[in-house]
Design brief:
The chain is mainly alpha-helical. 58% of the residues lie in helices and 11% in strands. A three-stranded antiparallel β-sheet has the order 1-2-3, with helices on one face. Strand 1 and strand 2 (119-125) form a beta hairpin. Helix 1 (21-49) packs antiparallel against helix 2 (57-83) and helix 2 (57-83) packs antiparallel against helix 4. It is elongated and about 80 Å long.
Length: 170
């Protein structure tokens, strides 16, 4: 005899999570390919120099900008991995808050908000409780690293341009 179920609850597969999973997966794959390329540039460069500092200040600042972009991309890919859910939003949020997928009779899940830019996946309940699956440090760290990369690249271009102008005058 087969056991029968009297529950009318349906199980939603990972394709029914409400997220744009294909976009997230595509960004993750592309991000990993770019990370591999950046690391393939950085590691041999630093190994050949036996350190971080390049022979010139613009070269050192350029490499600092590339390191900052690489770290920011790695954090973004990590945030996307935290973003992806394999169950529907009510099951995932209830499991995170209550420890089981059936939830609690108290507060109801009001909405699940997902965002690829900035990366986030937040559950909001009727009692005001919120839970973000992406760690709180990810988006601020990405912002700071990209800001540092822009500053380092700008200063490197300024120094390289000044050195070229000085060489032309000589």
């Amino acid at each position: 005899m087969r056991p029968t179920s009297t529950s009318t609850e349906t199980v939603r597969l990972a394709t029914d999570t409400g997220q744009n999973g294909m976009a997230a997966l595509g960004i993750i794959v592309l991000g990993l390919l770019v990370l591999i390329t950046l690391c393939a540039y950085l590691f041999p460069t630093f190994a050949a120099r036996r350190g971080f500092a390049a022979p010139t200040l613009p070269g050192t600042l350029r490499d600092l900008a590339v390191v900052c972009v690489t770290l920011a991309l790695a954090l973004y890919v990590y945030g996307l991995l935290c973003y992806i859910r394999l169950e529907n939003e009510s099951s995932t949020c209830a499991t995170e808050r209550y420890g089981n997928s059936s939830g609690n009779a108290g507060a109801n899940l009001e909405r699940m908000q997902d965002s690829l830019f900035p990366v986030g996946s937040t559950c909001r309940w009727s009692d005001g409780y919120t839970h973000d699956f992406v760690p709180a440090f990810v988006n601020p760290a990405i912002t700071v690293l990209l800001f540092l990369a822009v500053i380092a690249a700008g200063v490197a271009l300024g120094h390289a341009g000044a050195a070229r102008d000085l060489a032309r005058r000589s």
